[in-house]
Structures are given as structure tokens and as C-alpha cells.
């Protein structure tokens, strides 16, 4: 009577073991890599109704962030500027430019421009710009080098783990409050000590509880 | 064995090449249950209205609680008779002037220049904007009252648009105080310096002047 399993079937258990170990490692890696917000969220760069360039306005013209996003220090929601803010200058500058046609239409018809939101936090997580900006979190820390972006792309994951990293160790990310809108700010050598001192002096206690953001 | 290595290399290449790559596709969120809720946040879209805006404009003439604005001098820069006020109605301290400097540098310096000489980047960049006047001209320095500057910031003047929607009332007055300080700085005389600073300058040092 012939053998049911040939001799080379001895390899089968070994192969099974190896393949499942390999498969497990790959699966963990795939989930860790592809399901992470660094992969799913970062780099989102939608096309906007107007080809607005932060690189030109904030970079080359060196306008302060708050000229347009003027309620960022007072309100939870940092506003997208109204058409009126665009028309402050563009009622006289490049009035014939076809790129600005949607802005002029919006101004004439009193209909807002439909900008596409890049940084969308889920509606169940509340975020206040004012409390962060006034405590000394720079624009750059969360939004990247906006002054070098022709089109705005999301540069940080905005995930909960990423938020908590800073809430647990704010001294690694804070900067002097009057440097908040500085792009390309370089931390001094002793910035951790300075920030610890700032945290103590100003009583900054970043919450790590649920009720802070999720209500 | 060679195939295994090749597979590994290919995998590594595929996996590390994609993170943070720019894309126009919206973020992939597996569970969308409460990402976009059935309510409207600030500046969201609401297709119910003709202009698709969720934020509605208040009816003109309505007054919100706590925002009656009965102090004419503070809110309009004019007395009850409609005359521009001579001096700022808010109490001025160094902190107010510093706040004014910060706000001036954000909103005004783009055209009027950091020194108030009308040489802001929009003007020097030759973009075709009507030239901004210097604050150091005699008319603006000596003849116009503080209320004039507040009125211009609020309502605009000729080619300059109003900034009422961008700058809060008290910040507008703070900017007025800083413009006054700028004007003073360009027309200071020796007598304006304290004795100690004069001595330092005579000794060839740079004087650090603090405002009382």
C-alpha cells in the first residue's frame, strides 16, 4: 500500500509555520502602516475653487496669518476669510485676472466662495484654535510650512494619538506666544526648560481627559 | 530564496513609498458614523438656502444682548453731535500701545509700512494699488483728531476699504494710539529724550528708552 503522504510532505508543517509567521508580520505591518492617519489623512490636497496660493500671500508678501484668519485668537473656529478680505486688495490689484473671476462673482452676487476644507476633524471632536494659539502653539506645528504651500495640503495626521503626544509633553512643542504666527521658527537650545517655565508660569495644563474634546 | 528577497524588497518599496503622498482624494475613514453630523458648524455649507451658506446674516437694525454700543465715542469715534473725537476714549497704557503695534503690523503694515511711511510691501512691490499716504505728513500728524483714524479704520476712506469686520473695536483704538506713537517717533526732538538717554548717546552708546 502506497504512502498517503510522500516524503516531501515533511516540509508542509515547516512551510505552514513559516508562512503564517510571515503573514502575521505582514498583516501587522500593513495595518500599522495603511490604517494609520499618517497614511489615510496626511497629504490631502483638494483642488480649491480659486487657485489661492499661501506661498505667495504668506511667503512672498510676508503677510501675517491673522490678516485673513483674523478670529484665530478669539474663536474656536479659525475663520476662512470672507470675500471682503480678498477684495480689500483685489478691488485694485489684478482686477482683470481670470483666476480671480470666482472672487469677483462672489463679491458681486453676495454668494460665499465654496472653499474645500482640508483639515476636517470629526464632528464629535471639538477643537478650539483660540485656546491653543493663546497658549503658544504655533500655526506651523499643526499645519506645517503653510508659507511654502502653493496649494494647502494636510501635513499632520490630526489623529487623537498625535494630539495627545503634545498634551502629554507640551514643552516639546510650545513657543513664545508672540512667535505663534512665525513660519520657520527655530527653537533656542534651551527651549524645553523655557517651555517648562512657561507652562508653570502661565498655568498651562493641557487636558488629557475625554471631556476636554469629546464633551 | 532569491524570489523571497525580491518580494521583500518590492514590498518594502511599495510600503514606504506612499506615506504622506499628496492626493486629491479625501481621507479614508472606515467609520463615517459621526464624522459629518446632522448639524451645521461655522462656515459650513447648507444647501437649504440660495447662497448655500449655513451662517445667516442678522437682520439689519437688530441689537444683540450686551452689544448695544451706546457709547458713541468708543464705537463710532464721534461725539453724540457727530464730531470726530479729539482723543481716544479708551485709557492708554504701554500695553495698549504694544497691542496696537502688534495689530498695526498685522493689518496695516502691508500697505502703510512698518514705519508708517506708506512704503508697505504692496506699495513697494508695484502691484498697482493706490499709494498709501505717509502718517508723517503734517495734516495727519497735527490736524486730524484721533477719531479720524478710528473712523478710517472702521469705514475706510476713498480707495482704502474699512477693517471693521477684521479688527475689534478696542484693537482699532489701540492701533490709533500706535499710529500716534509712530508719528511722534519720526518727529522727535532732543528735548523728548530723558536726561539719562542723552548722556548715553553723548558717550556714543545706543540708548534704550523706556516709555513712562
From TrEMBL, chain A:
Record keyword Cell membrane present: no
Keyword vocabulary terms for this entry: Heme, Iron, Membrane, Metal-binding, Transmembrane, Transmembrane helix
Coiled-coil zones: none
Pfam families: Cytochrome_C7
Keyword field contains Transmembrane helix: yes
Binding site for heme c 3: 54
Transmembrane intervals: 12-35
Cofactor: heme c
Domain Cytochrome c7-like: 50-96, 126-214
Binding site for heme c 2: 69, 86
Name used for this protein in its record: Cytochrome C
Species, as recorded: Longimonas halophila
From TrEMBL, chain B:
Cited Pfam families: Cytochrome_CBB3
Domain annotation Cytochrome c: ranges: 95-183
Entry keywords, A to Z: Heme, Iron, Metal-binding
GO MF, any single term: heme binding
PANTHER family named in the record: LIPOPROTEIN-RELATED, QUINOL:CYTOCHROME C OXIDOREDUCTASE MEMBRANE PROTEIN
Name of this protein: Quinol:cytochrome C oxidoreductase
Organism of derivation: Longimonas halophila
Amino acid at each position: 500500500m502506497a504512502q498517503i503522504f510522500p516524503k516531501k510532505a515533511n516540509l508542509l508543517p515547516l512551510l505552514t509555520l513559516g508562512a503564517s509567521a510571515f503573514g502575521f508580520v505582514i498583516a501587522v505591518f500593513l495595518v500599522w502602516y495603511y490604517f494609520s492617519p499618517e497614511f489615510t489623512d496626511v497629504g490631502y490636497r483638494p483642488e480649491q475653487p480659486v487657485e489661492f496660493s499661501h506661498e505667495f500671500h504668506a511667503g512672498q508678501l510676508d503677510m501675517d496669518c491673522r490678516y485673513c484668519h483674523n478670529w484665530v485668537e478669539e474663536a474656536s473656529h479659525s475663520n476662512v476669510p470672507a470675500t471682503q478680505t480678498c477684495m480689500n486688495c483685489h478691488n485694485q490689484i489684478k482686477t482683470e485676472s481670470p483666476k480671480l473671476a470666482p472672487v469677483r462673482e462672489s463679491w458681486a452676487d453676495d454668494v460665499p466662495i465654496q472653499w474645500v476644507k482640508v483639515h476636517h476633524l470629526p464632528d464629535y471632536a471639538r477643537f478650539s484654535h483660540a485656546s491653543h494659539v493663546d497658549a503658544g502653539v504655533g500655526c506651523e506645528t499643526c499645519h506645517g510650512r503653510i508659507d511654502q504651500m502653493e496649494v494647502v495640503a494636510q501635513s499632520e495626521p490630526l489623529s487623537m494619538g498625535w494630539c495627545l503626544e503634545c498634551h502629554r509633553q507640551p514643552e516639546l512643542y510650545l513657543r513664545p506666544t508672540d512667535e505663534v504666527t512665525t513660519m520657520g521658527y527655530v527653537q533656542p537650545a534651551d527651549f524645553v526648560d523655557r517651555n517648562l517655565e512657561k507652562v508653570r508660569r502661565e498655568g498651562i495644563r493641557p487636558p488629557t481627559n475625554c471631556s476636554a474634546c469629546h464633551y | 530564496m532569491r524570489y523571497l528577497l525580491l518580494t521583500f524588497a518590492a514590498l518594502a518599496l511599495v510600503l514606504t513609498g506612499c506615506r504622506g503622498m499628496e492626493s486629491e482624494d479625501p481621507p479614508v475613514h472606515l467609520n463615517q458614523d459621526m464624522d459629518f453630523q446632522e448639524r451645521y458648524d461655522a462656515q459650513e455649507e447648507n444647501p437649504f438656502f440660495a447662497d448655500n451658506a449655513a451662517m445667516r446674516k442678522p437682520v439689519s437694525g437688530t441689537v444683540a444682548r450686551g452689544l448695544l454700543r451706546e457709547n458713541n465715542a468708543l464705537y463710532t469715534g464721534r461725539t453724540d453731535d457727530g464730531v470726530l473725537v479729539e482723543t481716544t476714549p479708551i485709557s492708554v497704557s504701554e500695553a495698549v500701545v504694544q497691542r496696537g503695534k502688534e495689530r498695526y503690523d498685522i493689518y496695516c503694515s502691508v500697505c502703510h509700512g512698518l514705519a508708517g511711511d506708506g512704503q508697505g510691501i504692496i506699495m513697494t512691490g508695484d502691484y498697482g494699488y493706490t499709494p498709501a499716504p505717509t502718517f508723517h505728513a503734517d495734516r495727519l500728524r497735527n490736524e486730524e483728531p484721533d477719531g479720524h483714524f478710528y473712523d478710517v479704520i472702521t469705514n475706510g476712506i476713498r480707495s482704502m476699504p474699512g477693517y471693521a469686520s477684521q479688527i475689534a473695536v478696542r484693537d482699532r483704538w489701540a492701533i490709533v494710539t500706535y499710529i500716534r506713537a509712530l508719528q511722534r517717533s519720526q518727529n522727535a526732538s532732543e528735548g523728548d529724550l530723558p536726561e539719562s538717554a542723552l548722556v548715553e548717546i553723548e558717550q556714543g552708546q545706543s540708548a534704550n528708552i523706556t516709555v513712562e
